[in-house]
Design goal:
The protein has 442 residues and is mainly α. The chain has a single domain, classed as Growth Hormone, Chain: A. The protein is built from 16 helices and no strands. The longest helix has 36 residues. It is globular, with a radius of gyration of 21 Å.
């Protein structure tokens, strides 16, 4: 890494001496991971809408049931397998699944059936959460609480760039197909193959994290965590702090599902074919990742240090409440595009780094097991609750006003949980710093 780049990191990203190489390796891993995922995400959204808006709540229920089944398996594996072996093995399992979808979807006509689309929707909705959760589990193990506040935004820049370019890659593939007069359905399966390549690059880059960090920084004792597959769920039930984190995630995903349903209604009324919907979803991703990049580069670390983690977490509920009010007044694609861009920019630029920093003050086993429960099962449980609410809403554009009426009061509770979590994290971070003989900077 050049000295000029190191000085830039120190100036813009508040990186201190000795942290630059590790930040770069972490950001590079996140870049490759989200590049691959955001190549596939517009396809997932396209398949979700293709089956009819009324099918989305049922698909969400299936997702959470699969998540419930996978969680104890994940916990059991983490309990027994050294983390330096588990992390690359997990990502290569995802790669293998991606290649299976490539083979299936290219074998028309079966590969283009609605059932294949539904299976892909469920699979990506489950494993995208595990993919990012595993990455942030390693980050929570790697950085101290004070470092997490300063550096998580900068690490997130790598993921944002990957998401931005991955989304842009989907749109450009469609343009190339149009220029070559190749059917769009014939090109989209190749996204699976390209995504698999980037997932493998993420595995290679994650190895650089282990080689760059001191052994005790990266993984502590490189062995299984012990316990059993249900330990994470027991930790969540017994800890008020973990329950608070789960409450924040639950409300976030419940409200996000309501907005996703509203988005589906507006896009279904706006675009009548798969290719147009795929393009709209991809360009929405381009917009929100561009805003996220701006926030992460220049504002995330500074905002968290200036106003604290709790108030940073509360920004997203405030943005969401304003966005819901805007959609109620003007329910058109332009408005839902701006709302989703603002929400997702605030989420990935501010809420996500602040939320991940909540785990930096926890013991190592909770960073892996309890975090996995929160990031996957609780996350999707909020989806299911939101889906159940959506099932009671009128069809099509008639769902918008009832969804807003339900969503706005929930954002108030969501903001309250945010402030409580910030205060509790401050107390736990002070205890961690005291144990390490350092002054608290939380």
């Amino acid at each position: 890494m050049s000295r000029a780049f190191t000085r830039w990191l120190e100036r813009v990203g508040q990186v201190q001496e000795g942290e630059g190489r590790l930040v770069f390796a972490s950001a590079l891993t996140f870049f490759f991971l989200l590049f691959g995922y955001f190549l596939l995400r517009p396809m997932r959204d396209m398949y979700g809408v293709r089956g009819g808006l009324e099918q989305l709540p049922y698909l969400t229920v299936v997702v959470v049931l699969v998540m419930l089944a996978v969680n104890p398996i994940f916990g059991a594996v983490v309990s027994r397998v050294a983390r330096s072996r588990f992390v690359p093995a997990f990502y290569r399992f995802v790669i293998a699944c991606t290649l299976v979808f490539f083979v299936i979807t290219i074998a028309a006509p079966f590969g283009r059936s609605q059932w294949v689309g539904r299976v892909f929707f469920v699979w990506l909705s489950v494993f995208n959460l595990f993919m990012t959760s595993v990455f942030w589990q390693v980050m929570a193990d790697l950085w101290r609480p004070e470092q997490a506040k300063r550096l998580y935004g900068l690490v997130g820049v790598g993921g944002t760039l990957g998401a931005f370019l991955g989304s842009l890659g989907t749109t450009q593939l469609i343009r190339i197909g149009d220029a070559l007069d190749v059917g769009r359905d014939d090109l989209t399966p190749w996204l699976f193959l390209v995504a698999a390549v980037f997932f493998e690059l993420a595995v290679r880059a994650s190895g650089k994290i282990r080689r760059t960090a001191l052994p005790e920084e990266a993984f502590g004792k490189d062995e299984g965590l012990g316990g059993d597959g249900w330990q994470g769920l027991r930790d969540v039930v017994s800890s008020p702090y973990l329950r608070g984190i789960c409450g924040y995630l639950f409300l976030f995903t419940l409200i996000s599902t309501l907005i996703y349903y509203v988005q589906g209604a507006i896009i279904s009324a706006t675009a009548k074919d798969d290719a147009t919907r795929l393009t709209l979803f991809a360009w929405r991703n381009v917009g929100d990742q561009g805003l996220t990049l701006l926030i992460q580069l220049f504002f995330t670390g500074r905002i968290m240090q200036a106003i604290g983690v709790g108030k940073t977490l509360a920004i997203l509920p405030a943005v969401t409440a304003l966005g819901l009010a805007g959609v109620a007044v003007w329910p058109v694609f332009v408005m839902i595009w701006f709302v989703q861009v603002a929400r997702r920019g605030s989420n990935f630029g501010l809420s996500k780094p602040a939320r991940e920093s909540l785990f930096a003050v926890l013991p190592r086993d909770e960073k892996y097991k309890a975090k996995a429960v929160a990031d996957t099962f609780v996350y999707r449980a909020g989806d299911v609750t939101g889906a159940a609410i959506c099932m009671t809403l009128p069809a099509g554009m008639g769902a918008i006003l009832p969804a807003v009426a339900v969503g706005v009061p929930l954002t108030v509770a969501w903001g309250g949980v945010s402030i409580w979590l910030g205060r509790r994290r401050h107390a736990l971070a002070a205890a961690v710093d005291e144990d390490q003989g350092k002054p608290s900077e939380s």
